[in-house]
Task: structure prediction
Amino acid sequence: MSARWGARRCGALVVVAALGHAGALAGQAPAARLDSTRMATATIGTLLGSAMAGDSIANFGTSRPVVHAKLAEMQMRLSRGALRSLPLQSVATGRATFGTVLRRSAVVPNVVESAALDTLARLMEEEFPAALRPVIGRDSTTQLLTPVDAFNAALRRQSMAASREKLQRFERKYGPGAPPRNLLEVALNYGAQFVPAFQPTAEGWPSRAELIASYVPTYLSVPGAGVKAGAVTVAEVGARFYLWKAGWGSSVLRPGYVSFGAVLAGARDGALQSPFKGASRFGGFVGWGGAKVAVIGGRNARVLVTRQLHVVPWVF
Result:
């Protein structure tokens, strides 16, 4: 064994010990599997420490100066002190804790820092294994790269959660349980995809808003003073907004969407009447899921209720 290799071996073992792998120095076989506890507590500071240790152990300053320079650059971009204590498993989440909201103490990597974090993790994943295994062994290398695994695991969880959420939103808006649309609404909402308020996001997430333009012969008037229950036909123009919150869309009390807009009724009550015939009556409607309530004014004012349904598919 050369003196240089021995010095590097000694330095590697000191670094491994400093990172919490005393078992490897005691002559015990290091755990071949990932340390889930350490993954859960790994921070950006831990990742930076592992990067610095791996750079030193592999002697990249001499053997791979380009990699060494890149690692140093990423370390500099992540030098903001507040970042060091940020858990890697929280970097990929967007949910704030109660304490964070109360104290306004959120620490969030900016665009440059986020890019540097991705680059640093990628460099360590690509360059460290082949360079470190001959020096400190496979298991110690795995342990040294634990922060990288923690960061990648957080990103995978975020990606999978985002994919599931996107699919659930598409299903809520366009799936079998979505509100029925007539052909006019289909055409309007297809065209509205190119209007800012209604178009999908840059990442392909569906807009929560869509247009309503329908002929509704299924409203019933609420009995009152001099008013008998009966069918009233109206034309609706408005908008529907989908509720993306988890757990909604599953019951009457927690529907998947709300709606509101204007209604127009003709002079006479009745099913399958023209809303444009005679002295028209104007009003508005609100919807809570499939249940809707409308009020029309004029001489024959009415309070109306209905359920979202189509008597003739694609028509009304």
User: Anything to note?
Assistant: The chain has a mean pLDDT of 84. The radius of gyration is 31 Å.
